[in-house]
Design brief:
This protein is an alpha/beta fold and 311 residues long. It has one domain: 3-Layer(aba) Sandwich (UDP-N-acetylmuramoyl-L-alanine:D-glutamate ligase). It is built from 10 helices and 14 strands. Strand 12 and strand 13 form a beta hairpin. Helix 4 packs parallel to helix 5 and helix 9 packs across helix 10.
C-alpha cells in the first residue's frame, strides 16, 4: 500500500484502564494496575495499520493543555496530524477484571466550535491528495454538526479516496447520505440506527440489507465474538471466528476496521478483507488491556475463520 491511510478521531481521549481482582456488584474490588494511553477509535486503527506495515496518519484534536495526551501519542510510530482546540479532551475510564468483565465510563468530550470544526476539515483536506482511504472513527463531541462526517465523505470522494465510517447516532445516519465505501456498526449501534432489537441471525441479515439500502457500498455488522455479517452488491456473507478465550474486547472493533482497509488496500476481495477484519478483531480480544493485534497474530486466526454466503 503506497498511499496513506488517514484516520480521523474528532473526539479522542486519554484512555485509563484500571485492572482489578474481580468485579462483583455490591462488593469491593482491589486495584491491581492502572495504565493511561492516548485513545480513540481512529488512533487505535492507526496502531493496527502500523502493526500491519501500512502507511498511516492519525488526524486528531488535542486541547491547549493536554501535554500527557500528546506525550502518550509520541510513543506511536504512525504519522500524526494534531489540530489544537480550546478545550481539553476527555478521559475515558475502563475498569476490568481478570474474568473479562469490564465497565466503560466515557466522558462526552469538549465543546468544539464551528471555527475549530473548519480547521479539522482543512487538516483532512490537506492530506487527502496523498491518501487512499479515510477512516472516520468514533463519536463527535458536543456541538459538532451531525453532518460533519457527511461533508468529509463527500470531500474524500472528490479526491477519489475511499471512506470507512465507524460512528453512532445521527453522524452515522447522516454519514450514509454521502455513500461511504464501508459502514461498520456494532450490534448496539445498528439497533439504535434501525430503532429495533437484533436478536437472531435472520435479524442480522435483514439489518445489513436495510443499512446498505441507506447508501453505503459495503455494510459490516460487527458481532464481537460471533464474528460479522456483511452486505455488498454480491449479497450477504457471514464470517465466524474460532472459539477463543477473550481477555479484553477493547479496541477489537477498531482492529477489525483497520485490517479490512489494509486488506482492501493491497487488492484483496471484500470477502477476504472481511476475514482479515474478523481475524484482527479476534486476535486483539485475546490480548490483555488495550493490546492490539500484530499481522502475525491476525494471520494465525485468519486461517481458522469460516466464511459463508447466506444470501
Amino acid at each position: 500500500m503506497n498511499k496513506t491511510v488517514l484516520t480521523l478521531t474528532v473526539n479522542p481521549a486519554i484512555d485509563r484502564t484500571i485492572t482489578v481482582d474481580r468485579l462483583v456488584f455490591g462488593d469491593r474490588a482491589y486495584i491491581l494496575s492502572r495504565t493511561d494511553v492516548a485513545g480513540g477509535r481512529g488512533i487505535n486503527a492507526a496502531r493496527v495499520l502500523a502493526n500491519f506495515g501500512a502507511n498511516a496518519i492519525a488526524i486528531t484534536t488535542s486541547g491547549r493543555h493536554n501535554p500527557k495526551f500528546e506525550e502518550h501519542l509520541k510513543r506511536d510510530t504512525f504519522g500524526k496530524e494534531i489540530i489544537k482546540i480550546r478545550h481539553n479532551i476527555r478521559i475515558n475510564l475502563t475498569i476490568a477484571d481478570s474474568q473479562g468483565l469490564a465497565i466503560k465510563l466515557n466522558e462526552l468530550g469538549p465543546i468544539v466550535s464551528q471555527a475549530e470544526q473548519n480547521r479539522i476539515a482543512k487538516g483532512v483536506e490537506k492530506l487527502l491528495p496523498q491518501a487512499s482511504w479515510l477512516m472516520l472513527c468514533g463519536s463527535v463531541p458536543p456541538g459538532v454538526d451531525a453532518h460533519f462526517y457527511t461533508k468529509l465523505i463527500r470531500m474524500a470522494a472528490k479526491h477519489n479516496v475511499e471512506t470507512l465510517l465507524d460512528t453512532d447516532g445521527d453522524p452515522l445516519l447522516h454519514g450514509m447520505e454521502a455513500q461511504p465505501s464501508i459502514v461498520k456498526p456494532n450490534q448496539s449501534e445498528a439497533e439504535r440506527l434501525l430503532n429495533r432489537v437484533l436478536l437472531t441471525r435472520t435479524n442480522y441479515i435483514e439489518a445489513v440489507q436495510q443499512i446498505k439500502a441507506m447508501g453505503a457500498k459495503f455494510v459490516v455488522l460487527s458481532l464481537g465474538g460471533r464474528g460479522a455479517v456483511a452486505a455488498s452488491a454480491d449479497g450477504v456473507v457471514e464470517v465466524v471466528p474460532p472459539q477463543i478465550e477473550a481477555l479484553s474486547p477493547i479496541g477489537a472493533g477498531d482492529a477489525m476496521g483497520a485490517a479490512m482497509v489494509w486488506a482492501l488496500g493491497r487488492g484483496d476481495s471484500f470477502s477476504d478483507a472481511l476475514r482479515w477484519g474478523v481475524a484482527a478483531g479476534t486476535a486483539s480480544s485475546k490480548l490483555p488491556g488495550l493490546g492490539l493485534a500484530t499481522l502475525e497474530q491476525a494471520k494465525e486466526i485468519y486461517g481458522q475463520t469460516q466464511i459463508t454466503s447466506v444470501v
